[in-house]
Amino acid sequence: MKYDLDKHHRRSIRLKGYDYTAVGMYFITICTYQRNCLFGEIINSEMRLNQLGQRVDACWQRLPFYFSNLNLDAFVIMPNHIHSILV
After folding, report:
1. CA 36, CA 55: separation in Å to the nearest integer?
2. Which of 5, 37, 38, 59 could form a disulfide linkage to 79, CB 3.0–4.6 angstroms apart?
């Protein structure tokens, strides 16, 4: 999907001049390609992970083993994206 100014009205929320390599807490969102629902589905207001969603969860939980300065805070998997707070 190409960026179309008429459809996409996003503006950067990054602080000008802020060093994003600095220590801190960062809220991130990672979306699937073309927002395909790959990680499971919501049933009765509850996210039910499929096999791929379970794999994403397992891999995410192991990130601090690979990055010793990383701490995981809140984390949620949705059908087509994940949200997390990284410290």
Report:
1. 16
2. 37
- What's the Cα-to-Cα distance from 36 to each of 31, 75, 79, rounded to whole Å? 9, 19, 8
The one-character DSSP state at 14 is: P
Count CB-CB contacts under 10 A for residue 56.
19
HSE value, Cβ hemisphere, 13 Å, CA-based, for 5: 0
The whole-angstrom separation of Cα 86 and Cα 70 is: 7
Q: Confidence band (pLDDT; 50, 70, 90) for 4?
A: low
Query: Using one digit for the tens of pLDDT, what is the confidence trace for 32-64?
Result: 998 999 999 999 999 999 999 999 999 999 999
- What lies within 8 Å, CB to CB, of 58 at 6+ separation is none
Beta bridge partners of 81: 31
